[in-house]
Amino acid sequence: MGSRKKIMADRIKEAKKTTYFASLRNVPSSPRKMRYVVDLVRGMEVSKALATLKFCSKDASKDLEKVVRSAIANWEQKNDRKAENGELYISKIYVDEGATLKRMRPAPQGRGYRIRKRSNHVTVFVDALNNEEK
User: Fold this and answer.
1) Domain 22-128 belongs to what architecture?
2) What count of Cα atoms within 13 Å lies in the side-chain half-sphere of residue 127?
3) pTM above threshold 0.70
């Protein structure tokens, strides 16, 4: 590995030590449906976000709740302590498009209609509130 490449790799490695995130890949729902639920919790404090997801009627909220809990656990693991109530918030959250399965459905007169079964990838970043922000 070249020296510039190694320096950059070390810099990225140090930056990842202070970021706390979780991602869920290949969720079998369309990205558009997941973004409706993601927009509900973007920027929220995590306990409030978990309560919102628990009582949301959308099916995608179950998958998103799983990712948020995982991000909280990752924060607790890296900091060697439990998160206090009101300490963490969702700093960044986004949904990317995953693989699309292409299927055919029988149609009238010997034709076939194309079906696209979409999937998505969800990534959640959590961060602690500083004393100034409280």
Assistant:
1) Alpha-Beta Complex (3.90)
2) 14
3) yes
